[in-house]
Write a structure and sequence with these properties.
The complex is a heterotrimer of chains A (262), B (298) and C (430). Chain A has 262 residues and is an alpha/beta fold. Helix content of chain A is 37%, strand content 22%. Chain B is mostly helical. Classes of the chains: A alpha/beta (262), B mainly alpha (298), C mainly alpha (430).
Chain lengths: 262, 298, 430
């Protein structure tokens, strides 16, 4: 059940991504519509994070390509916003909440220029949107998990992008924060932004996403939520890895090199 | 020449070097690359020797260029060992700097006929001793200003570097993935930082010797980190510590009649351990840097 | 040549002593260092080797001369203090490990240098020997000292062997060790003592700055060859001894050269060779494997082309037609055809090239695998028919007979691929 769209905001074409000499995503083909809140679902190790990182250019694909706004990544970076996983940084870094959110404006500033009043204002507006205005001077080492997540999202908002990619933004976050953030994301989608979220919980996924991508080392399904979140497709996604594919992956891993790399 | 003029020049030079090293050292600390900084100060030796050999003088531009290139080379070697040979980080650093330093020593011996570098000098800066000692006595004061000018140039370049690339340096220190994602070249920034460290190291060898340079790169930032939680205050505190170390180092050395550079290290160490005693948590079980903070209701 | 023989037949007793000394020092540091390396605390050894300097000076001052007992004790206490301060700082402040090690290293070393230069100024003639601690002077190891250092080395080796399984636990799973009642804290303490001792005696040969190499590089090099602990330790010790002897040889042949740096150079050379040639992570191995794989795929493609010609009832293909399929690859094609002919898979004659019956069978298998994989991608992974070809082009060379059987079963023996081409099977296969 893979729905393709014409004039997609994001097009992934025959993408195979390898990690550590063996493939972790096989031949993913999908296209996504603009202005929607889209969830990427799948079990651990399904390749969700890998997909996001490939779109962001942090991992080079083994084959295939990705187009965003019908252009390669390098040409449209300023229109894309990225929220990495929370544990990828050391939260003991000496910075205030405002400092971190202002970092979101760095991409547009370019080399050598310093952030000024305009950038600080953008950052403060972003903090307001996530409800963290009161914390702007607080050191990030003093924040709770949910607050840290909100700061990361505020940073993404400060980028003022059209496409937002978020890697597990709800990991370790309490219910109230999750609901509040989801509502924010829905507002953004309604305003025409496209928001792509790697998520781990099927129930909240059912409630909040409009479009779902289901991964399990390969693309199981991609389309409007109601058409895709069926029992059969959920079973294909979460019901264990394809035995054959796993054996083939093991076979490749045993080789001394990755034969899929040309 | 009056006593005060000498004292002022020496303290000024020491302070300028301390601040330059301290500024760079803060970013090394935040990137958890303090040992890399130490390694680079050893690894530049072949570059210095080759530069000396090529130019015939230990105070030439070739030496600085040689050191800069070696700094970049050692960073690339450490990276290659990690990424290609899959050697762990600490071992990569250890293997790289010992090999390059060993090559440096061998080159000194090979070129001994042309390169007048006593191997002991390079390490604890006997090169450095003479100017400093001479500053104290009335003769040889003509050496003073040149080294001070060098320290001033270094200070100017380092401060300019940090000012221009402040947001790139802080972002890549905090969140490398995000910086790559928004198009800031993390690798390039890193190489630039390491080049500045190499240049500062070599430029300061002459004045204060290799030992003190490493100490100034690492210890004042670590001391400052114990006291403050914000980046700009950390930079300010590190420079204040640098000035304090220069002043106290000079006067204590004068009082005990020992080497100024050595005394500066001692002062830096005392300030560091003192701060650790005062600021250290005296309860058991406080871990060092942890990835996530304790969870509580938001 | 004479020098070489003279050296290696140990005609000179002092050479024998030096080599013996280097060997003992080298084994001790390689063993202890490898554990440090596995523990990911390799640079702690570097810090300790710098930190012993103040202790050496104090020992010298107290003894009034270069008495090894005082010096070793002083060095040991200095190193122990540094180790203690490192763990205290790690536990009680939020400083990261690398900045703690770097700080301790530079502060202790700086103070040591101050002490050393002060001693040098005092004009005591014995001082000259102290310099050898900074840069190492294996050849200068006095016979009398050798007994002390050799004895300590032996002690290190014995303790390490006795406590091998405890140290292994310490490195790999201290939590488990605690759980089964081992005194992990005490074991860590003993290990640190051994580390400091190894450093204290190692710097005689190689000096303070380069000591880290003697600890880290042998283990890192040996790691490329084996995963198992005991062979790893033995190999590391072997590399260390070999480098020590070679380094001493160079020092012997070129009188001005200090030994330490050459030992490091040889160690690094061994590490580089290990990285390139070892089977475990070998670059060479990977290169060869990739080349032979590419050659095989090339031969497979040729056979496929011949098979497809057969499918459209063209019995054979002329050389010209084959060259036409892969322009600019004449040499590879000729080479592949040669090999295929030798393997009996292909028959070449004046009219062209055709598959033998074995060749036909093999080629059929490749084509079958290709098309089966395409069916799999298309049906099980929802991949569009126009995207399955590339993946199949690669997988057709890899799939084993077991996987082939699994595929057939899973797909229920399909007859057509997504491009409506027949999946060829021998008549007796189904």
């Amino acid at each position: 059940m893979i729905t393709q769209v014409s004039q997609p905001v994001l097009e992934v074409h025959d993408l195979t991504v390898s990690y550590d000499q063996h493939p972790v995503l096989w031949n993913v083909d999908l296209s996504l519509p603009a202005g929607q809140l889209i969830g990427i679902l799948g079990p651990n190790g399904a390749g969700k994070s890998t997909l996001i990182k490939s779109i962001m250019g942090l991992i080079q694909p083994t084959s295939g390509y990705i187009k965003i706004f019908d252009k390669p990544l390098a040409e449209v970076r300023s229109r894309i916003s990225y929220v990495p996983q929370r544990e990828s940084v050391d939260w003991n870094f000496p910075a205030s909440v405002l400092d971190v959110v202002v970092m979101g404006t760095y991409g547009k500033l370019g080399l050598f220029r310093r952030p000024g009043k305009k950038e600080v204002q953008i950052a403060q507006d972003a903090l307001d949107q996530v409800g963290m205005m009161a914390f702007s001077k607080r050191q990030i080492s003093e924040l709770s998990g949910g607050q840290q997540q909100r700061v990361f999202i505020a940073r993404a908002l400060a980028q003022q992008a059209d496409l937002y990619l978020m890697d597990e933004p709800f990991a370790g976050v309490d219910m109230a924060t999750e609901t509040a953030i989801f509502q924010l994301l829905q507002d953004m989608a309604r305003a025409g932004k496209t928001v792509l979220v790697v998520h781990h919980d099927i129930h909240s996924a059912m409630n909040f996403f409009e479009w779902c991508i289901m991964l399990n080392l390969h693309l199981v399904a991609s389309g409007p939520k109601d058409q895709v979140m069926t029992e059969e497709l959920l079973r294909k996604t979460y019901g264990g890895k394809l035995n054959l594919l796993t054996q083939v992956t093991d076979l490749i891993r045993k080789q001394d090199f990755n034969p899929l790399k040309s | 020449m009056t006593f005060d003029n000498n004292a002022f020049l020496i303290i000024l030079t020491g302070a300028l070097i301390a601040i330059s090293c301290g500024f760079l050292g803060v970013f090394l600390l935040l990137r958890k690359m303090s040992m890399t900084g130490d390694a680079i100060s050893h690894a530049v030796l072949p570059g210095i020797v080759i530069g000396f050999f090529v130019s015939g003088s230990q105070r030439s531009l070739e030496v600085i260029i040689g050191a800069g290139l070696l700094g970049i080379l050692s960073t690339l070697m450490i990276d290659a060992l990690r990424k290609r040979a899959k050697v762990q980080l600490d071992a990569s650093i250890g293997i790289t700097f010992t090999l390059l330093f060993a090559i440096g020593i061998i080159l000194i011996n090979l070129f001994a006929y042309k390169v007048d570098l006593d191997q002991e000098c390079v390490l604890y800066g006997e090169i450095a001793y003479l100017p400093i000692d001479l500053w104290i006595t009335p003769s040889g004061i003509n050496l003073g200003p040149r080294v001070t000018w060098l320290a001033g140039l270094n200070f100017f370049l380092v401060t300019g570097f940090i000012y221009l690339l402040f947001k790139e340096l802080s972002l890549t220190s905090f969140d490398e993935h995000f910086s790559s994602a928004i198009g800031i070249p993390a690798k390039g920034v890193n190489l630039a930082l390491m080049s500045m460290v190499s240049y500062t190291t070599v430029s300061s060898f002459e004045s204060v010797g290799a030992i003190l340079v490493v100490a100034l790169l690492v210890v004042p930032p670590a001391t400052g980190y114990l006291w403050t939680k914000s980046l700009i205050p950390l930079l300010r505190l590190t420079s204040a510590l640098g000035i304090l170390i220069a002043i106290l180092g000079y006067y204590l050395a004068y009082w005990i009649d020992s080497s100024i550079a050595g005394m500066m290290v001692a002062v830096a160490g005392a300030l560091f351990f003192g701060s650790a005693l005062v600021k250290g948590k005296w309860t058991m079980g406080i871990r060092g840097t942890s990835k996530s903070s304790p969870a509580f209701d938001s | 040549m004479e020098d070489f023989l003279y050296f290696f037949t140990f005609q000179d007793p002092s050479i024998t002593w030096v080599v013996l000394g280097i060997t003992l020092l080298g084994i001790g540091s390689a063993y202890v260092g490898t554990f440090s390396f596995l523990d990911k605390k390799a640079l702690l050894g570097d810090a300790i080797s710098h930190a012993v300097l103040p202790g050496i000076c104090v020992g010298f001052v107290l003894a009034g001369e270069k008495d090894p007992r005082y010096i070793v004790t002083g060095a040991f206490l200095s190193g122990a203090l540094a180790t203690f301060l490192s763990s205290w700082l790690k536990q009680h402040t939020k400083l990261s490990e690398d900045s703690i090690i770097a700080s301790i290293l530079s502060i202790f070393f700086g103070i040591g240098i101050v002490a050393l230069t002060a001693l040098q100024k005092s004009g005591n003639p014995e001082i000259a020997g102290l310099n050898s601690f900074i840069f190492g002077n294996a050849i200068g190891i006095a016979e009398a000292d050798l007994f002390l250092y050799g004895g300590l080395s032996l002690a290190i080796l014995i303790v390490l062997t006795l406590f091998l399984k405890e140290f292994r636990l310490m490195v790999f799973d201290p939590g488990f060790g605690n759980a089964i009642g081992f005194p992990m804290k005490g074991i860590r303490f003993i290990f640190n003592v051994l580390l400091i001792l190894a450093v204290v005696i190692g710097i005689q040969a190689i000096g303070v700055v380069l000591m880290a190499a003697l600890l880290i590089t042998p283990g890192a090099a040996a790691r490329f060859w084996t995963d198992r602990l005991q062979p790893l330790l033995l190999l590391a010790a072997f590399f260390s001894i070999l480098s020590g002897i070679l380094g001493t040889y160079v020092s012997f042949v070129v009188p001005q050269m200090p030994t330490g740096p050459w030992v490091v150079v040889f160690l690094s050379l061994i590490a580089l060779i290990s990285f390139i040639f070892s089977p475990k992570s070998g670059i060479i191995k990977r290169f060869i494997a990739r080349r032979s794989y590419l050659n095989k795929t090339h031969r497979d493609h040729l056979m496929k082309a011949l098979f497809k010609a057969k499918e459209v009832n063209k019995g054979r293909m002329t050389l010209k037609e084959i060259y036409g399929l892969y322009p600019f690859h004449k040499k590879e094609i000729a080479h592949s055809l040669q090999l295929l002919t030798r393997q009996g898979l292909v028959i070449q004659d004046s009219q062209g090239v055709q598959l033998s019956s074995q060749g036909t069978s093999d080629a059929m298998r490749i084509v079958r695998l290709h098309r089966l994989w395409e069916v799999y991608l298309n049906e099980f992974m929802n991949i569009a028919p126009d995207h399955v070809h590339e993946s199949a082009e690669q997988m057709e060379h890899l799939l084993t007979p077991e996987l082939e059987a699994l595929l057939e079963q899973r797909l229920n023996y399909p007859t057509l691929d997504p491009h409506q081409e027949t999946i060829p099977r021998e008549s007796h296969d189904i």
